[in-house]
Amino acid sequence: MKLIIATIKPFKLEEVREALTGIGVRGMMVTEIKGFGSQSGHTEIYRGAEYAVNFVPKIKLEIVVAASMADQVVETITKTAQTGKIGDGKIFVLDVAQAVRVRTGETDADAI
Fold this sequence. Notes:
Elements: E1 2-8, H1 13-22, E2 29-35, E3 42-46, E4 49-53, E5 56-65, H2 70-81, E6 90-95
Antiparallel strand pairs: 1-5, 1-6, 2-5, 3-4
Helix pairs in contact: 1-2
């Protein structure tokens, strides 16, 4: 099993969710986060005063899938979330040692 962690722009969430559902992803966790990368934030003017916004709003997706499906999920997220502009996000893929469904006690592949 693989854990895929992806950060994307907030307005791309619904499009990415639909694309992942279309390839058979049955569940994911979504978190609103803030962060920065090479864009290093930006400045804004509020009530006449300029201030630095050091963290940019992002969405973090966490998806656990069978190892055989991981490449397809990464490719789908990459194609769907891409705008071609700075700040499109990152994707990380990690190994999952164990999974347990709390309600039923099912483990590993049966739990996802």
